[in-house]
Specification:
InterPro entries: KR_dom, NAD(P)-bd_dom_sf, Peroxisomal_Beta-Oxidation, Sc_DH/Rdtase_CS, SDR_fam. The chain is of the alpha/beta class and about 300 residues long. Helices cover about 40% and strands about 15% of the residues.
C-alpha cells in the first residue's frame, strides 16, 4: 500500500473490531498515526472493555506504525471532546475523523421501546455529531480536515426491524452533507460510506427463515477489509475535491449513491383542493412512486 496519508492523524471510532479495526490498520499502513477508539461494549451497547482498542494499537505498533488507544464513548459530548483531545495530546493535530462506532437494537417498529430507539440514535447520529463537532474547531483553525461517516442502505433504502438504526443512518447522510456545505470554505470535506460487510452487528441479524440464512451467508463473503481502501482514499490530498458524496462498498464494488431530487411534478394554476389532489395529482404522480423496497430488494445480485 502506498503511503498516501503519510503523517496525517486519524481518529477511528468503534475501531476495536470489524470495519473500524480494518480501517485503522489500513490508515496506519498508509502512513497515518491512529487514535483507536472503542469502549469495548457488546453489539447492543452494554458493558465496556479497554482490551479491543489496545489490541488494535498493539497490532499497529507491531507493524511499525504509531497508534494510541481511547475508550471514551461517542454518545456523550464531553467524552467526544476527549476523543479529539486524545489525538491532539498524542500526536499534536487531527486530520481525519472516521465516524464508525455503532450498536444495534433491532425490533419491529410497533414493538420498539423508547430506550431501543434512543440508544441507537444516540450512538450513531449523536455520536457522529459529537465527534465531528469536537473536530470541527481544529479543522477550521488549520484550514483543512476530512470526515468519513458510516451510513447504511438500511437508511438510504430501507429494512425491516430497524427504524432506530435506519433513522440514525439516514440522518448521518444529511449531517455529512451539511458539514460539507458549511465547512467547504475552510478546506474541510465530508463524505459517507454505506458498507456491506460481515461484522458483529451484521452477525446479530435474525436467521429464522431460509431467505434470511441465505442472505447472511452472502454477507459473510464481504469482509470488513473491503471497506478500508475507500475510507483511506477519501482522506488523501488527491481527493480534496471529493465532498458531500455518499458511496457504498459491496465486496469488490464501489457505488456512488443517489441523493434525493425531484422526480416528477404537477401543477394547477388555481391551486389545489383535497379533491383535485386525489383526482389529479396522485394519479399523475403514481407512476413514479417508489415501492417499499429493502436494501436486499435493490442489491439483488451476488457480490463480485
Amino acid at each position: 500500500m502506498s503511503r498516501i496519508v503519510e503523517g496525517k492523524v486519524v481518529v477511528v471510532t468503534g475501531a476495536g473490531g470489524g470495519i473500524g479495526r480494518d480501517i485503522a490498520l489500513a490508515y496506519a499502513a498508509a502512513g497515518a498515526k491512529v487514535i483507536v477508539n472503542d469502549i469495548g461494549a457488546s453489539v447492543s451497547g452494554e458493558g465496556g472493555d479497554a482490551g479491543p482498542a489496545q489490541r488494535v494499537v498493539d497490532e499497529i505498533r507491531a507493524a511499525g506504525g504509531e497508534a494510541a488507544a481511547n475508550t471514551d464513548s461517542v454518545s456523550d459530548a464531553a467524552a467526544a471532546q476527549r476523543i479529539v483531545a486524545s489525538a491532539l495530546d498524542h500526536f499534536g493535530r487531527i486530520d481525519v475523523v472516521i465516524n464508525n462506532a455503532g450498536i444495534l437494537r433491532d425490533r419491529f417498529f410497533h414493538k420498539m421501546s423508547v430506550d431501543e430507539f434512543d440508544s441507537v440514535v444516540k450512538v450513531h447520529l449523536y455520536g457522529s455529531y459529537f465527534v465531528s463537532r469536537a473536530a470541527a474547531t481544529p479543522f477550521k483553525e488549520q484550514n483543512g480536515g476530512c470526515f468519513v461517516h458510516m451510513t447504511s442502505t438500511s437508511g438510504l433504502i430501507g429494512n425491516f426491524g430497524q427504524a432506530n438504526y435506519s433513522a440514525a443512518k439516514l440522518g448521518i447522510m444529511a449531517l455529512s452533507k451539511s458539514i460539507a456545505l458549511d465547512m467547504q470554505k475552510f478546506g474541510v470535506r465530508s463524505n459517507c460510506i454505506a458498507p456491506f460487510a460481515w461484522s458483529r452487528m451484521i452477525g446479530s441479524i435474525p436467521t429464522e427463515t431460509d431467505a434470511e440464512k441465505a442472505r447472511v451467508e452472502r454477507m459473510k463473503q464481504m469482509t470488513p477489509a473491503k471497506i478500508a481502501p475507500l475510507a483511506v482514499a477519501l482522506a488523501a490530498d488527491s481527493a480534496a475535491d471529493v465532498t458531500g458524496q455518499v458511496f457504498a462498498v459491496r465486496n469488490n464494488e464501489i457505488f456512488l449513491m443517489s441523493q434525493p431530487r425531484p422526480v416528477r411534478s404537477v401543477q394547477r394554476g388555481e391551486g389545489w383542493t383535497p379533491d383535485t389532489v386525489l383526482n389529479h395529482a396522485l394519479p399523475a404522480l403514481k407512476g413514479s412512486f417508489f415501492g417499499l423496497d429493502r436494501s436486499s430488494d435493490v442489491f439483488t445480485w451476488d457480490p463480485v
